[in-house]
């Protein structure tokens, strides 16, 4: 199977070359950060988690969303999901790798990662986050590789592989739940101190992850011989519609709780994010984009005619993905620090170095995903699951 990675069109090699160049630029930025310390970022005493942790949180959700294709196929015997399950598992692998890289770059020094192991304690949410994320990566590697190898050899996957696939379903829920506990368990941050944080995380994950999967399936449909069935896209789009609706409803609940109860610390963060507070408006344009994209996507997905039209479906999925990345990958984490515990406002926007490192991590994720998808499409071509 691996040999297919080294065979491809000129466009394939140009794409890999582009990703390699972006990774090199991101790595150079990381080396600069490593040599000069986290002072080259815009993080500080008041906003100690920035873009890196925001992106980590967002891509944990993307990884967890693989359950949206694994669950119907393995638990409900929905055969139509069989062709795309491997693509969902490979998306989870690349997303978890990105999550681990975001943690490493946020630590400043990679050796600090070993502190989680050396000083492991069951009371540490960081320890449990490491356990569930590394376990989820291992499960998806084992399941994805063995399922693809079985398809390559035209045999059924081993029984233990199916059992691991069943295990991956609750495990996927656990990775995002533990990440939510990591944030909501900090009592000094009132914006995060909500009992529905884990539910919010899962709802937004099941909207953004399947949206990205649909975009990838549409891309493969256009540029490769692999053709996903329309009924799979229709079912995934219905899942996204429900998940987006629930996610927006949960955000509405946060507004009601904060403003009906008039809790100042909870209200101030929402005011800062959406309309600005005491003249500070750095994140307001981002939240305006989030609001517009989320509502337009919601309308497109609610209407069956636009939801079943692949042109509008692709547009809605792109809007959902970008909107959720802004809300969870930027505003949710940064908003928790503003105002600080002394009700003072220190604004944060990522520095150029942070942006370059982040884009470099995205490129590594895209490179891993490209290689895995190249192999999967080649195996499916060999198995006759594609159109010529």
Automatic annotation (TrEMBL):
Entry keyword Transmembrane: yes
Alphabetized UniProt keyword annotations: Cell membrane, Membrane, Transmembrane, Transmembrane helix
Membrane topology: Multi-pass membrane protein
Gene: nrfD
Transmembrane segments: 12-32, 52-74, 86-105, 125-143, 164-186, 192-220, 232-260, 280-301, 313-339, 351-373
Domain of life according to the entry: Bacteria
Family membership: Belongs to the NrfD family.
Protein name: Polysulfide reductase NrfD
InterPro entries tied to this protein: DsrP-like, NrfD-like
Major location category of this protein: membrane
Pfam family, one: NrfD
Protein location: Cell membrane
């Amino acid at each position: 199977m691996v040999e297919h990675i080294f065979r491809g069109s000129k466009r394939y090699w140009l794409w890999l070359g582009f990703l390699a160049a972006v990774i090199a630029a991101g790595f150079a930025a990381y080396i600069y950060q490593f040599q000069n310390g986290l002072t080259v970022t815009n993080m500080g005493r008041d906003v100690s988690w920035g873009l890196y942790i925001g992106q980590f949180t967002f891509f944990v959700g993307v990884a967890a969303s693989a359950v949206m294709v694994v669950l119907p196929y393995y638990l409900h015997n929905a055969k139509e999901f069989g062709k795309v399950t491997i693509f969902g598992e490979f998306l989870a692998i690349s997303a978890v790798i990105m999550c681990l890289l975001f943690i490493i770059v946020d630590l400043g020094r990679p050796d600090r990662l070993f502190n989680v192991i050396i000083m492991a304690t069951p009371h540490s949410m960081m320890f449990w986050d490491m356990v569930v994320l590394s376990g989820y990566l291992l499960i998806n590697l084992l399941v994805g590789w063995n399922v693809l190898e079985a398809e390559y050899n035209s045999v059924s996957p081993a029984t233990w592989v199916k059992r691991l696939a069943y295990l991956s379903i609750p495990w996927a829920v656990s990775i995002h739940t533990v990440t939510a506990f990591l944030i909501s368990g900090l009592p000094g941050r009132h914006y995060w101190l909500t009992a529905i944080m884990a539910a919010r995380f899962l709802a937004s994950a099941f909207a953004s992850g399947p949206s990205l999967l649909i975009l990838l399936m549409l891309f493969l449909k256009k540029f490769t011989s692999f053709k996903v069935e329309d009924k799979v896209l229709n079912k995934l789009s219905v899942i996204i519609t429900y998940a987006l609706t629930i996610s927006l409803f949960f955000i509405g609940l946060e507004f009601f709780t904060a403003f009906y109860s008039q809790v100042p610390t909870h209200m101030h963060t929402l005011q800062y994010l959406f309309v600005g507070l005491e003249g500070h408006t750095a994140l307001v344009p981002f939240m305006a984009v989030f609001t517009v994209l989320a509502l337009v996507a919601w309308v497109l997905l609610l209407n069956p005619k636009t939801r079943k039209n692949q042109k509008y479906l692709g547009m809605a999925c792109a809007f959902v993905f970008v909107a959720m990345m802004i809300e969870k990958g930027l505003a949710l984490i940064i908003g928790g620090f503003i105002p600080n515990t002394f009700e003072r406002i220190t604004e944060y926007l990522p520095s150029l170095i942070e942006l370059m490192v982040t884009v470099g991590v995205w490129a590594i994720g895209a490179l891993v995903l490209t290689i895995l998808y190249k192999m999967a499409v080649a195996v499916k071509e060999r198995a006759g699951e594609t159109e010529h």
